[in-house]
Amino acid sequence: RIPLPKKRLQQLGWGIGIGGGAIVGLAGLIYGTYRLAYWRKIYPGVRGATVAVGNRSVEEATTIIEQSMIRQGIPVVELSGNGLKVNLDVSGLGLRYDAMASAQKAWERGRGGGWGENLADQWQAWWKGVSEPLAYHINEEELVGFTATVAAEIDKPAIGPQLTIVKDKEGKRVIEVKPGETGRRLNQGKLLDMIEQQLVWAKFEPVTL
């Protein structure tokens, strides 16, 4: 093998460096153009809960989310289990979705973190899609009161075994064991979490207690 002259090696290194720099520069130009194109718009692939708002301005996304909430109608959460069935009309608890705040959160996806985090969010939104939870307001005290009412209907204290003295057929005194009963208790914190998850994603499904 004949070694390459030192000058030739230098030229080769410069060529590789220039080529690599050109690739990096091109990638940077493409990414910069992408960011500029969506400077005032939500990145493609972003949703407000289940509502597609990508490639829209915050104002446009606000209108889209508002219209989606109107089409959905009055949300009702159906709860059932342990012999109880009740419907929670969350509109009666002062539920109000904040469409503008929800659209703003969608716009911030891919912009609110560091450079690497933003790039990862933009990439995921483009290829897989991402969802941002909706902003909403509700009377928390009334919601907690509702779950407490449901708990009062379901909760049942445990009863331990009981011993009693009775007479058998022959008249002898014997000890009889009466089996206990298993109690039950509703996890109100878990129920609140399930209801709030339905509210934040505007996806209302039956809840098993």
Which H/E pattern describes the elements?
A: HEEHEEEHHEEHEEHE
Helix residue percentage:
40-55%
Structural class based on helices, strands and sheet pairing:
alpha/beta
Q: What's the overall average pLDDT, rounded?
A: 83
Shape: elongated
- Rounded to the nearest angstrom, the radius of gyration is 31 Å
Largest sheet: 3 strands, mixed
Find the count of extended strands (DSSP E, 2+ residues).
Answer: 10
What's the short version?
This protein is α/β, with parallel strands linked by helices. Helices cover 47% and strands 18% of the residues.
Q: Would you spell out the secondary-structure blueprint of this structure?
A:
Blueprint: H1 6-37, E1 46-48, E2 51-52, H2 58-72, E3 76-81, E4 84-89, E5 96-97, H3 99-108, H4 115-127, E6 130-132, E7 136-137, H5 140-154, E8 162-167, E9 173-178, H6 188-201, E10 207-208
Parallel strand pairs: 1-6, 3-10
Antiparallel strand pairs: 1-2, 3-4, 5-7, 8-9
